[in-house]
Amino acid sequence: MDFKEARKNVIEQQIRPWGGLNVRANQALSDIPRENFVPEEYQKLVFADIEIPLNELDKMLSPKIEGRILDSLNLQGNEDTLEVGTGSGYLTSVLAKLSNSVTSIEIEHDLYLKAKEDIGKLKLNNITLINEAFSSSNFKEAQFDTIVISSALPTIGDDLKKLLKVG
Q1: Residue 81, Cβ neighbours under 10 Å: how many?
Q2: Which of 55, 80, 112, 157 could pair with 106 in a Cys bridge, judged by C-beta atoms 3.0 to 4.6 Å apart?
Q3: DSSP letters of 42-80?
Q4: In terms of Cα–Cα distance, which of 116, 41, 29, 37 is closest to 75?
Q5: How far does Cα 112 stand from its chain's mean position?
Q6: Is position 53 within any domain?
Q7: d(CA 79, CA 23)
């Protein structure tokens, strides 16, 4: 498979038609090799419009959902971003291309280790990975410009909202 061509096609055939018109976001999606974050047994489906299993419980978001999230954020490059649910680390890496910094928290130790390894290969130096439950985290109030939730949370409570900077 020609991954470079496939990345271009996924943007043109899935992300843009679904409202992903942010040029910076689409370029970042194209720049980060999604195939490096997908389990070997799913390589042929790396750009399919499905959620790819990462383990028994966790799944990677589909490309069009990732595109919609990034389009909605409209990141300008100066934001400090919190991601709740690192998962594979792919969306984390794309967020890092678009943000000043990314702090990503992942409860599952195996996912955290794999994401850390795969992100490390990209030499992105503006990512902080944390391996713990969000409910156990100790972030400062008004620390982040944007928050991306790419995992299941029982509720979006005040503990999460208070982390957003005003403005």
Answers
A1: 23
A2: 112
A3: GGGGTTSSSPEESSSS-EEPPHHHHHHHHHHH---S--E
A4: 29
A5: 13
A6: yes
A7: 17
Based on the structure, what is the number of domains in the chain?
1
Token output for 116: 């850390």
Half-sphere exposure of 60 (CA within 13 A, CB side): 28
Q: Is 30 exposed, middle or buried (0-12, 13-18, 19+ CB in 10 A)?
A: middle
167 lies in a domain? Answer: no
- What CATH number corresponds to the domain at position 109? 3.40.50.150
| Residue pLDDT, tens place only, 38-68 | 999 999 999 999 999 999 999 999 999 999 9
- Does some domain include residue 63? yes
> What's the 3-state SS for 20-39?
CCCHHHHHHHHHCCHHHHCC
83 Rama class: left (phi>0) / alpha (psi -120 to 50) / beta: beta
CA torsion angle 8 26 88 58 (round to 10):
-100
44: containing domain: 3-161
Average pLDDT over the chain, rounded to an integer: 94
pLDDT tens digits for range 22-41: 999 999 999 999 999 999 99
